[in-house]
Every structure is written in C-alpha cells, then in structure tokens.
Amino acid sequence: MNDTSEDFEELDAAVLAESKKSRAHTVLICPQCGSRNVTYWLGLKAGCQYQCKDCGYVGAFVIEG
C-alpha cells in the first residue's frame, strides 16, 4: 500500500467536514442497549467515537435514525 501525505491530508479534511455537519435531525442509538442517550465523545484524528450514558458503551459504531 502506498500512502502519501496527500492521502492523509485528504482523509483529515473529510473527517473534519463530517464532524462539522449538523446532527440536529439525527438520532443516535446505542448498538449495545438500544438507548437514545448517546453523545459524541471524541473525534478528528482518532475517528468519531460515541458514548452511551446508560450502559457505558464507547465506540465508533452507533445506529443513526
């Protein structure tokens, strides 16, 4: 695999653009317990991570509805 700094810059720009999108109409659902009490936890270079306030799940995978 031939990764260049341009590839990483493009990926960083895409992640930043995604993180700036409005989530006002998106409902996040925990894949572990089904709760809607899910919040954005951290992101950017680490990737988007979410935390469920009910069961404590932390991960990149959530259900958007």
Describe the structure.
It is a single chain. The chain is α+β, with helices and mostly antiparallel strands. It is built from one helix and five strands. It has one domain.
What would the keywords be for this entry?
65 residues; alpha+beta; three-stranded antiparallel beta sheet; 25% helix; 23% strand; elongated
State the end-to-end CA separation: 35 Å
The proportion of residues in beta strands is 15-25%
Query: Helical region count?
Result: 1
* Biggest sheet descriptor: 3 strands, antiparallel
Name the poorly predicted regions: none
Which secondary structure elements does this structure contain, and how are they paired or packed?
Blueprint: H1 5-20, E1 28-29, E2 38-42, E3 49-52, E4 58-59, E5 63-64
Antiparallel strand pairs: 1-5, 2-3, 3-4
What would you say about this model in short?
By secondary structure, the protein is α+β, with helices and mostly antiparallel strands. The chain has one helix at residues 5-20; strands at 28-29, 38-42, 49-52, 58-59, 63-64. The N and C termini lie far apart (35 Å).
